[in-house]
Each structure stands twice: as structure tokens, then as C-alpha cells.
Design brief:
Two copies of one chain form a homodimer. Chain A is an alpha/beta fold. Chain A has helices spanning 26-29, 33-41, 58-65, 70-73, 78-84, 121-128, 184-201, 205-212, 235-239, 250-258, 277-290, 300-306, 310-330, 389-399, and strands at residues 4-10, 43-48, 94-103, 109-111, 131-133, 136-142, 147-153, 220-228, 243-246, 262-263, 293-298, 335-340, 357-362, 385-388, 405-406. Chain A starts with a strand and ends with a strand.
């Protein structure tokens, strides 16, 4: 009994009071009968994903929620992004998140996102993929929209290099500088790759067509966020559980793949504001039939938070809640459900913050508390108190009867 | 003022909601005016003995409550069991928990507990005690009922060996296998000891009498749970306090002895369901006259939890509560009392779980909160919030004015 585990992560859900919502957060302001059902019948708390006041990225957040200490395993988002776009990543590989960008003839950046290019980036990426420089194998793959991933493979690489992406426009790409002696080779390869990307892309047919159509050319690649791939034991190795993830966003997919989770695709689940959340919940229920643990990430609330649009965020909550009706109806009795977020993305901050996130755990073995609604402040009154992200999986495993006793 | 400390540990007290008790836990369902008195006048919280979701054994739990990090000092229960049965244990000794068991002429185990032998195990143990093999000194002592302890003393021993006890019947004892090269000697000694135990015990007069009486012979010793004795500084060394423990169970006694606590015996305190709890509380009050800190362990709730008998568990709570009347009447005004558990043993799980335990601290220097009853959920609303087992002693020492300032 109680052996299945379902973790629903509403990306960026946590928020702060909004004056125009009479001091409520977007979550608190939204109609959310299903969230309140799970909170009311379950045990609630708040969770510091990393530790109090630390602003998590979606990558470090998901690492923590999957039981890995991000301070030990995380050097940069590159390798997880690479996993997310489906590249093969081996321990020791160094990878970078990249943008397709536009530079003018003076090599000054005129658009860091190449006119928000969406089409034919695969053709551009293939022109850069599978190269070799000073014995380092170089791979490149497109991501969603203007994004791509650069991956380097050799002995003796290091992620301790600066970003060629200057993170602003009107300037030239920065030189990649080693921050430690052992990163010299890595920096040389990155600089050679950026230079080569311009040489190959500037006259690429895709860009000639873009210029003809009045669009900005995607004529250079700007890498950032170097990281080295750690060796991470899988969820199967650590807990003996089969697991699957439903996530639209490459970065989250990448983390889940690194943790050895099967990535399931859902038709209509885009990782955008238009995602079909109900389909994702139906797919989660189906996935629970063949997996011990299923993780669902719904990105939309985070996007609304980054846009600072609290009305849209409250509306997203309403849509998530409606989708949760699928679980309310169909969740098997022996499954423990955790409903939570990977971080707060308050509309006033338009970015991730370290505010704790609400948490409700629902299922046969919890001790229900007096909390009757799912919100940042109501959950703070709950019986779970204040936990950390890395505690979540142990708590769920214990409720599901899946832990080993420590001692006798 | 406020210098004495009394810690009352209701072993395995924590539980989960029981449907037949209208969703209450056995603790919540029981009449418990004295527990409620201490909770109502004191400060309450919940406690993760190790960390959230981790299932503690009674040994690792008591180590944590006594301020030792079990992840640093605990390798296995053997050495603490040895301390509990009164053996001399030195740092570096490797010890095993053992069963007196019955094998047939094919060396197949027919009863892992030798017909639950209770009498004359001392005679059998003496026949095996004080041996030497390959320079390793070998000691053996009986514990309660079918239990015993094997202790090895030499340079270069290791606890990294497999259990000869196969933990099931109908099979032969397993060979003890080293899990690391440095454990080869230890494994050889253990295998020689198991072989020798059969040779010596099979025709021992005690067993001849048992067979005559139609009882199963205790004709072999099956070791398990190897552990190496760490060096642990005593409570006196760490905190300058004299301390004593009242506990019926060998394992808990062993932990307390390792921590340098004086073990006090109470007439009628058996460690079983029939234990005289009132006598234990009287003895605790007496012990506080001569010791700065006293720990009392009451085992009965854990036994009821392991049996899955929630009515018995609620009844045990009622009996513990009655015994706590002794403290309500006689606790000196300057003593701080902590009422808690070492882990949860929910009746639905019939084993330890990682659910947090309730905690109430009563005494002159606490900040009383609004909690009015002692229960898993009421205490979660308390002013102490959610603590860890290793926090308990520092909190009590601070209330008792016994801590050093860190900094200036």
C-alpha cells in the first residue's frame, strides 16, 4: 500500500503579496478547489528548495528535489541543457548553453536572440556539429527557439572559463578567459568555436534567406553557463525505483534524464503558456501504472512570473487547478502526491527568488493537518513545518514504505 | 536554577492516523492528562530524529538524542548491544548481535530463535566465551531471551563483513564474506566461531536437557549486524554533566553506557509490555538528586507498534501517562523535562518510520506556546517548530544554563 509517488512541480509558482490583488499572491487570489482539496486532506508545509534565502535556478532546484546536493554536483547548467536537448553527455564533458545571435560586420551584437529565431536552427546547428580542435571533440545542437548547446569532450577539460556571451547588446562577444590554469585548453576551444560559428553561419543559406525576408541573421553562437557533467547515481541505483518525468522544458528534462528518469512525451505539452495541462495529468496517471515515481513539471506559472504579469499568473493557477481535477478523480488510492514548486518567481521581482514554496503531501500515510487551502501563507501553518528541497524525496519515500532503516 | 535535565523517551511513540480511531493516532486517541499538562505548560514541536524521512533504529536514534552524529559514529549495532549486556568494549573492537538458533543434522536452520529460549543461555555462553583464533580474542555473552553478543578484539579488525545469519529459516547459515580486503581476518574468525559454536553447543548438557524436554536445542550461534566501536567522548567530557539512564532494553542501555551514563536498574522495569512504569519515574526523580541529567526509555509503545496493535498502543500511552503523574507531582521546579520519542513505529507500518515525533519541553525557562495537548499534530503547531534529534540536547543544555557562549 502507498508505494507510488507523484510529484507535481508548478514551476515558479511561489510569489509575494500583490497590492492590486488586495495583498494576496497570485496563487492565493486564484480559484483553486482542487489544490485546496489536496491541501485540506493532506499535510502542508513550506520548503526552501536549496536553503533559506537562496535563489534556485530550475536546474539546481530540480537536482535538490531529486535528492542531489546541488552544491556538490552542479557547476553550470550546460551539461543539463545538453541532456535536455537529447545529446549524449558523459561524465567529464563540459557543456555550454548557447544563443543563436546576430552580429553586424563590426562583430557587434545587434540581437542576442537573432530576432527570436524559431525555424531552421537545426540546419544551422548541423553545420557546426561534430568538429575537432586540439584533440577536443566539439558537438553542437539546437534547443528550443534561439537556444542551442555546445558540448566539448576530451580528457582534462574544465568549466572554469568566462562567458563569451557578454549578456548585453551593442558590444562584441567577450573572449573566453580561463579562470584557472587547467581551463586554458577549454577556453581556446571555445574561442575557436565562436570564431568558426561566424565564419560558417554568416553565409549559410538559412541566413541568406532570413536577410532576404528582412529577418536578422543567426550568424554567431554565444556560449555561456559552462558546466562539467558530474557522475550522478540514478534514482534506480539510489532507491530501487523506476521513475519517469513529464516536462516540456529542456533544462528540466536534462536534469531528469541525468537522474535516470524515463522522459515521456505528451502531445500538446509544450512547456509554454499554451501547454495542455490536462493531457499532462492524464499522462502522469498512465505513467504511474508502469513507474514507481513520476515527476510532472508545469512551466507556465514561471513564465507569467518572469513577465511580471500577476493576472496571467493567477489565471495560470486556475488552469493548473483545473488540470489537477484529473488527479482528484483518478489518482490511485495508494499513491502519495506532492504538490509544490521548484522556486518562487514573484511578479514584482520578475525573476526567481529565495522565498520558500508551498508544499502539500496527500496520500494514505500522511498526518493531515488543519490547513484547508493551498497557498504560500496557509501552508506555512501546516504540520510539515519548514523543509528543504532535499528532504522531499526522503519524506515521500518514507511515506511510501521505500526506505531502509538506519540502525536497528 | 533550572539546572537539572530529564529526558523521557517513549520508544516508538509516533504514529499515523488510524481509521478505526476516527483518524486519530493511538497517542491522540488516548486519555493523557499528564502529557497534556506538560505540553500545555511547556513548549512543543516535532522532531526528525535523524533528518526528515530517515527511518532511525533505536540505536542511531539514541545516539542522535545524546548529541552524536550517527552518520559519523555508527557502523552497526553490535558494539552497542555488547555494551548493553555489560561486556567491556574498547574502541576498535568489532561486535555482532547474535541469536541462539537451532539447526538440524544437515545444518539447516529450523528455528532462528531456538524455540524462543529464555533459560540457561548463560551456561551456553560461558562455553563459548574467551577463545582465541589467529591472534584475535573472542568473547561471547548472552543477552535477553534468545539473544547474545559476539565480540572480537585485535588490531586491524573491520566491520565490513556479511551476516552469517541468513535472516530466514530452512537454509544453512551463510558464510561470512569480507566486503573489503581489510575485513578478511574478521570474516575468517567469524566463520571459525560459528563452526565452533555448533561443535560445542550440539552436545552441551543444556541442549541435551532441552531435547529431552521436547524443546529445540540452541545448538548454533548466528551473528549479524557487525559494527566497530567508535571512540565517543562521554557526556561528562562534552558537557561537564553527570548523567544516568533508566532503560530496560540492552541496545538502549548500550548506547547510554557508551555515552558515559550511569546505568540504573529499576525493580520491575523489564523493557517489556509488563514493565512497571511508575517505578521507573520514581527512580528517575531519585536519580535527579545525584545526577545532572537523567534519561528514561520506556519501550512498551514501540512493542505495540511493531505488533500493529493500535488499541494496545493507546492503552500503553494511558499507562505511560499515569506513570508521568509521578513527575507531575514530584518533578523539582528547577528541572527541565523533555517528553518525546526516539522514532515513530506506526501500527500500519509495524516498523520504524521516518515520521517526525512529538516533543514537549517543560520547565522554568521555556517559552510556553498555545499547544494544549501532546500529540503528533498538536505539537506540530508548537513554538519549537521542527527540530532534529541532535538539536535536543543543546536546547536543553541552554535552557538549563549549561552551555558555553560561542563567540564574544
Amino acid at each position: 500500500m502507498g508505494e507510488g509517488i507523484l510529484v507535481v512541480i508548478c514551476d515558479g509558482l511561489g510569489d509575494r503579496p500583490v497590492r492590486a490583488l488586495k495583498g494576496a499572491s497570485p496563487l492565493e487570489a486564484a480559484t483553486r478547489p482542487n489544490m485546496n482539496h489536496f491541501a485540506g486532506k493532506g499535510a502542508c508545509g513550506i520548503m526552501d528548495i536549496i536553503s533559506p534565502g537562496v535563489r534556485p535556478g530550475s536546474d539546481t532546484a530540480h537536482l535538490a528535489i531529486l535528492g542531489f546536493d546541488p552544491y556538490k554536483v552542479y557547476t553550470g547548467r550546460g551539461p543539463f541543457e545538453a541532456m535536455g536537448v537529447g545529446m549524449e553527455v558523459r561524465p567529464g564533458d563540459v557543456a555550454f548553453r548557447c544563443n543563436f545571435s546576430s552580429v553586424n560586420e563590426n562583430m557587434e551584437i545587434v540581437d542576442r536572440r537573432a530576432g527570436r529565431i524559431r525555424e531552421r536552427t537545426g540546419e544551422l546547428a548541423r553545420a557546426l556539429d561534430d568538429w575537432e580542435f586540439e584533440g577536443v571533440k566539439v558537438f553542437f545542437k539546437e534547443g528550443t527557439e534561439h537556444r542551442g548547446v555546445l558540448l566539448l569532450r576530451a580528457e582534462g577539460l574544465s568549466p572554469l572559463v568566462s562567458d563569451p556571451d557578454p549578456h548585453e547588446e551593442g558590444v562584441r562577444p567577450h573572449e573566453c578567459v580561463p579562470k584557472a590554469p587547467e581551463a586554458a585548453l577549454t577556453a581556446r576551444v571555445v574561442n575557436a568555436f565562436v570564431k568558426r560559428s561566424y565564419e560558417i553561419l554568416r553565409d549559410h543559406p538559412v541566413n541568406r534567406d532570413r536577410i532576404k525576408a528582412g529577418q536578422k541573421p543567426a550568424n554567431i553562437i554565444l556560449p555561456r553557463g559552462a558546466g562539467i557533467m558530474p557522475h550522478l547515481p540514478s534514482i534506480k541505483e539510489r532507491f530501487g525505483m523506476s521513475s519517469a518525468a513529464l516536462a516540456g522544458v529542456a533544462l528540466v528534462k536534462g536534469i531528469c534524464r541525468v537522474a535516470g528518469m524515463e522522459l515521456l512525451e505528451v502531445k500538446g505539452a509544450t512547456g509554454g503558456l499554451d501547454t495542455d495541462m490536462g493531457a499532462k495529468m492524464e499522462a502522469a496517471l498512465e505513467a504511474l501504472e508502469g513507474h514507481d515515481m513520476v515527476l510532472v513539471n508545469i512551466k507556465a506559472a514561471d513564465l507569467a512570473g518572469h513577465d511580471g504579469d500577476f493576472r496571467m499568473k493567477a489565471n495560470v493557477v486556475k488552469r493548473i487547478d483545473k488540470a489537477l481535477g484529473v488527479l482528484r478523480k483518478g489518482l490511485p488510492r495508494d499513491v502519495h502526491l506532492a504538490l509544490t514548486a521548484d522556486h518562487s518567481t514573484p511578479c514584482c521581482a520578475k525573476d526567481h527568488t529565495g522565498d520558500p514554496v508551498p508544499l502539500a503531501i496527500f496520500g494514505p500515510n500522511v498526518r493531515p493537518d488543519n490547513v484547508r487551502s493551498f497557498g504560500e501563507r496557509s501552508c506555512a501553518q501546516g504540520g510539515l513545518g519548514r523543509l528543504r528541497g532535499m528532504d522531499l524525496l526522503p519524506v515521500l519515500l518514507d511515506l511510501a514504505g521505500r526506505t531502509e532503516k538506519f540502525g536497528a
